[in-house]
Write a structure and sequence with these properties.
The structure holds 2 protein chains of 2 kinds.
Chain A (H helix, E strand, L loop, with lengths): L6 H18 L3 H7 L4 H10 L17 H14 L1 H21 L2 H12 L5 E4 L15 E5 L2 E12 L6 E7 L9 E7 L5 E6 L10 E12 L3 E2 L5 H37 L1 E2 L2 E2 L4 H29 L5 H26 L1 H4 L5 H9 L8 H13 L1
Parallel strand pairs in A: 1-4
Antiparallel strand pairs in A: 2-3, 3-7, 4-5, 5-8, 6-7, 9-10
Helix pairs in contact in A: 1-4, 4-5, 4-7, 5-6, 5-7, 7-8, 7-9, 7-11, 8-9, 9-11, 9-12
Chain B lengths: L1 E6 L1 E3 L21 E3 L1 H17 L4 E8 L4 H10 L3 E6 L8 H12 L6 E5 L10 H9 L2 E12 L2 E7 L5 E7 L2 E5 L11 H7 L4 E5 L31 H15 L5
Parallel strand pairs in B: 1-4, 1-6, 4-5, 5-11, 6-10, 7-10
Antiparallel strand pairs in B: 2-3, 7-8, 8-9
Helix pairs in contact in B: 2-5, 3-4
């Protein structure tokens, strides 16, 4: 057994850290305030290879592994949860299913633009009445000649506002529930796609969360992703991998808050001593750090299992659950350590506190993660 | 054309340093390591020249140390060096600058490097002797603390930084060695695709015993970590007095009020 990162992963971690320190940290507050990640940062992250870390070089990916991807999302999220989810949703939810389920032609056509960051990817599953229960999908499609015609709506689409490349789920027969669902690769700038709204949110405010309407959206038949009627499998497999990304985002947010709280506890003096000298604060730091390290171990293990082509469903559900709960816990305790200053927007803790909550909700609520884990235990 | 860049891995200077068992250097356990900052300028300049000259130019990166320094080597490879020499030496920290220089010079002497780049000094030892001593031992031209570099068909034009903001221009014919100073360039980030490419680049591993022929000329007698920092200076009194005190300190200790 070896719990140490390889030298290659350490080089990568240091490079990403360096980049984040200089390029993201100074503008993280602005990203939150202006509800937007600047195009210049997306371009720089793309040049760094963040948008296609674990896909092969033949599709303009960086050719690294899932562990590298987890490290990238973690390091980026230490400074900016919005930028972290941009990378995670793009990589896991758009590039991921196209790479896993796409034909060679589809991979050649769509992956280079995604992996290089020329196009942003999004995943269109959630609907007003179909969240955790994806079988309730009400967006419908029918075939007309060489095209599928899609009508319906989607909500809460991360990265939707970029109108890049989408993986969209629609049903041809609602009565079949999840067996009626198919997946399609969609050029999001096509006619028939309307942005209803970019949501205003509590956290990850720099990230687009978009609601769409589809009115006779026409998709060529060659854009069917996987087999017809097998869209639910595409969605579930994709979310399985996506959980590693969201767990890494949550871990990064927790680590970012912890680093700041640890430093602050040594600087802040009350009753003539640093507050880190008080056991009340020491115990908080111990609890925070233990949860961070537990989450990290589980994320790295899930990534390692995926890299080694082993089953990782259980571990990805556990790492998502552990890391997101660590993130809400750690940011809450970090704010307590910062006291009143933590509540003020000039410090970064309140942003991290707001950013953390969504990680317990999206890409499978933590209740769904518990369903996944317990089902596997009892099957 | 053949280029060599020599790098050292140093601890993060934010680390808490403790003396080692012999009390002559810092304890190397539990430290975070990175490439010496001045060496990053050297690597960047060498890579820029390598890119400008294109095909037929080979850039080798060299580092002396334990297996740990391979991390720094891999970073240089990911920044654009073509191949590497890892001089394997777990006891590099106990060698003096003369010995370190002699190891590099012995490695380089039959390889006909046209230009050798080094940092102007290391952030931990800070002797600033290795680069110039390598040049001396190889009998080639050398200029130090460069903040500008141009190369054209066998001629180097380097801008040097002197004391007090004065600059000087030095011209040299190759073969030559330059030591690089902050301000020379902005080192690039190793990108993910280049980290991947670096995995396929060759790292020659050479035991230090094959290259070390010299005795040390100097030994470090003792090592003293910095005293624990106090809480800074707390000024007290009327506002008028405070302002005068503050201005006096800023004038004395900083450059902001000169």
């Amino acid at each position: 057994m070896n719990f140490e990162l390889s030298q290659d992963h350490k080089v990568l971690q240091a490079a990403v850290r360096d980049f984040v320190e200089k390029e993201i940290k100074p503008i993280a507050m602005k990203i939150d305030e202006e509800h937007m990640i600047p195009d210049s940062l997306i371009k720089k992250m793309s040049e760094m290879g963040f948008m296609g870390s674990y896909f092969p070089e033949e599709y303009e990916g960086a050719g690294l592994d899932v562990l590298s991807y987890a490290i990238v999302v973690e390091e980026v999220s230490k400074a900016c949860g919005s930028s972290g989810v941009l990378i995670s949703a793009h990589t896991s939810l758009a590039n991921g299913p196209i790479y896993t389920f796409g034909t060679e032609e589809q991979k050649k056509k769509w992956l280079p633009d995604l992996n290089s960051g020329r196009k942003m990817g999004c995943f269109l599953l959630t609907e007003p009445n179909a969240g955790s229960d994806a079988g309730g999908t009400a967006t419908m499609y029918r075939r007309e000649g060489d095209e599928f015609v899609i009508n319906g709506s989607k909500i809460f689409i991360t990265n939707g506002g970029y109108l890049g490349t989408g993986v969209l789920f629609a049903s041809f027969d609602r009565s079949l529930k999840h067996k009626g669902i198919s997946a399609f690769i969609v050029d999001m700038s096509s006619p028939g796609i309307t942005i209803l709204k970019n949501e205003n949110k509590m956290g990850i405010r720099g990230s687009y969360t978009t609601a769409f309407a589809f009115d006779d959206l026409r998709v060529p038949v060659e854009n069917l992703l996987g087999k017809e009627g097998k869209g639910f499998n595409v969605a579930m497999d994709t979310l399985n991998g996506g959980r590693i990304g969201i767990a890494s985002q949550a871990l990064g947010i927790a680590e970012g808050a912890f680093e700041r709280a640890l430093a602050y506890s040594k600087e802040r003096k009350q009753f003539d001593q640093a507050i880190s000298e008080f056991q009340a604060i020491q115990f908080k730091l111990a609890d925070m750090y233990a949860r961070i390290e537990t989450s990290k171990l589980m994320i790295y293990k899930a990534a390692w299992l995926k890299d080694n082509k082993m089953n990782y469903t259980m571990e990805s559900a556990m790492c998502k659950m552990l890391a997101s709960e660590a993130a809400t816990y750690v940011t809450k305790e970090a704010m307590q350590i910062f006291g009143g200053y933590g509540f003020i927007c000039d410090y970064e803790i309140e942003r991290m506190y707001r950013d953390a909550k969504i990680t317990e909700i999206y890409e499978g609520t933590n209740e769904v993660q518990r369903v996944v884990i317990s089902k596997l235990l009892l099957s | 054309m053949k280029l060599l860049v020599c790098i050292k891995q140093v601890p993060d200077l934010e680390s808490r340093f403790k003396p080692n068992a012999e009390g002559v250097w810092y304890n190397e356990t539990d430290l975070a390591w990175r490439m010496n900052e001045y060496d990053e300028y050297a690597v960047e300049q060498a890579v820029q020249l390598r890119e400008k000259l294109g095909e037929g130019t080979e850039l080798t990166v060299l580092s002396i140390g334990s297996d740990r320094v391979v991390e720094a080597i891999k970073k240089a490879l990911a920044m654009g060096a073509d191949n590497a020499a890892h001089i394997q030496d777990p006891a590099a920290a106990s060698k003096d600058p003369w010995q370190i220089a002699s190891i590099i010079a012995t490695y380089a002497k039959d390889k006909a490097f046209d230009i050798i780049f080094t940092g102007m000094q290391s952030q931990d030892r800070g002797s600033a002797q290795v680069g110039v001593t390598v040049a001396e031992q190889l009998g080639i031209a050398c200029t130090t603390t460069i903040v500008g570099f141009e190369y054209d068909s066998g001629n180097i034009r380097a801008k040097r930084e002197l004391e007090g903001g004065i600059k000087g221009i030095v011209k040299m014919k190759t073969p030559a060695l330059v030591t690089c100073q902050m301000g020379l360039n902005v080192p690039r980030y190793p990108t993910l695709p280049n980290i991947m490419k670096a995995k396929k680049k060759e790292i020659a591993v050479i035991p230090v015993a094959d290259l070390l022929k010299e005795e040390a000329l100097a030994t470090t007698a003792s090592f003293h970590p910095p005293a624990k920092k106090g809480g800074g200076i707390v000024l007290e009194g009327d506002v008028g007095v405070l302002v005068d005190q503050l201005i006096a300190i800023l004038k004395d200790k900083t450059a902001v009020l000169r």
